[in-house]
Amino acid sequence: MLFKYKAVDQNNSNKEGTIEALNIDIAVSSLQKRGFTILGIQPANKTGFFDRKITIFQKVSNKDVVILSRQISTLFQAQVSALRVFTMLASETPNPLLREKLGQITTELQSGSSISKSLAKHTDVFSSFYINMVKAGEETGKLDETFSFLADYLDRNYELTSKAKNALVYPVFVIFTFIAVMVLMLTMVIPRITSILEESGQEVPIYTKIVIGMSKLLTDYGLFVLIALFIAGFLVFRWSRQPSGKEFFADLKLRIPYIGNLYQKLYLSRLADNMNTMLLSGIPMLRAIEVTAEVVDNEVYRRLLMKSAENIKGGKSVSDSLSEFPQIPKIMIQMMRVGEETGELGNILKTLSNFYRREVTNAVDTLVSLIEPLMMVMLGLGVGFLLASVLIPIYNISGGA
């Protein structure tokens, strides 16, 4: 980035010019090293308000962090210094927000901070798991391997999570389509047919009365219903951010038939993969469990892992501390116990992670194959019920006539 500056040199002569630097702090530092006293400095190309890149709505995706980790690993293997690595990546990274973060990390490294401490100031991009892995890599002197491990782990986690989320996109779309069709029929089609039924004066079945009542509710008070739904949704969203709400929805997610089983396998795979990756990097098991609790992304599993960590501090083994919770399958406990007895806990965790990853993949494939016909049947039954509720009385009127 190019900066314009005004300064005074050691001979009290005024100086003006430009300097290329990653950010304004580095530019000031470079000028001061030349013996200049800074009078003013600003970007050479100032942009207008509407030309500025707004980073408030931008985010750093998991894919960005995976690519970044692989680049860092490659540069460390090439014996490039940490400061040079982050300086290069800060100037080349296409994501503006990540580029800004890397620039700040570079400044921290220049001031003598370690990589892990610099990353810890940007927890919105780098998780506790990521930071602890880097810290372990610094302590063991294997940062190139650590960043390679991180890239592989994040890649696996992203693939698995994306597969599970994508499986739920289609049913959500169909459900919203179903609701939209029902609302359109109740507000546009049913009222016209209702007028025919009311003019006939004929007694209608109870299910037809229900449909007519729903139609009148939406046509007469539709705006109020919409406002009520919006307020209710907002309140539920706010509550879901509270500890009690987080635990309720986390537990609900695990209790939904079939979907809950899918999520359980996803969390178990993530749990085993996290702990295995951290053990490979030399992080103690207790710390690995504590960090995994913060990144497992489910309040139920977070709480049980934190309680397990407390039990381990009290002298219990990992398998015994986890065996108290029904959310952890017995087969997983038994395999971990064998791993502890044989000293192969890391390999056991890797095997468990691979097993549950395959289980998630198979469950998602099965779910996708079942959802399409099931959703179409539900949509057909819903529309059919509405039509039958009003067409059967009309047919009776025609028959009576």
TrEMBL record:
Cell membrane recorded as keyword: yes
Keyword Methyltransferase among record annotations: no
A GO BP annotation: protein secretion by the type II secretion system
GO cellular component: plasma membrane
Keywords, alphabetical: Cell inner membrane, Cell membrane, Membrane, Transmembrane, Transmembrane helix
Type II secretion system protein GspF domain sequence ranges: 69-191, 272-393
Annotated compartments: Cell inner membrane
Membrane protein topology class: Multi-pass membrane protein
Transmembrane segments: 168-190, 221-239, 374-395
Superkingdom of origin: Bacteria
PANTHER family noted in UniProt: GENERAL SECRETION PATHWAY PROTEIN, TYPE II SECRETION SYSTEM PROTEIN F-RELATED
Family of this protein: Belongs to the GSP F family.
UniProt name for this protein: Type II secretion system protein GspF domain-containing protein
Organism field: Candidatus Campbellbacteria bacterium CG22_combo_CG10-13_8_21_14_all_36_13
